[in-house]
Design goal:
Blueprint lengths: L2 E9 L4 H15 L5 E8 L6 E8 L2 H8 L2 H11 L3 E9 L4
Antiparallel strand pairs: 1-3, 1-4, 2-3
Helix pairs in contact: 1-3
Length: 96
């Protein structure tokens, strides 16, 4: 069963440029993961400090492998999360 999630980040204003730079690296590494189906990043048109990540993995284990990967921990956990005001993760399922 595939796992899909949408993540909403509100970045501290001073950190937006750095987060965008780090996300380029993160997207490149994540898209190489065996269990990754897609990893899309969107920026709000109204607020450049708001980002949305839309991710899909082949199964729950692939998502766990992603969260435990070296690149996730070095880029997201260590460098991006400290630059965020808020972080919301929503697991979703496609209906239609």
């Amino acid at each position: 069963m595939e796992k899909e999630l949408i993540v909403k980040w509100k970045i501290k204003e001073s950190g937006t440029a750095r987060v965008l730079e780090l996300l380029q690296q993160m997207a490149t590494e994540t898209k190489k993961e065996k269990g990754n189906i897609f990893y899309n990043i969107y920026q709000s048109e109204d607020n450049p400090n708001e980002l949305f990540l839309h991710e899909r993995y082949t199964n729950p284990q692939a998502l766990e492998d992603h969260k435990n990967s070296t690149h996730y921990n070095k880029i997201v956990a260590e460098q991006i999360i400290p630059l965020l005001e808020t972080r919301e993760v929503v697991m979703v399922k496609q209906l239609f």
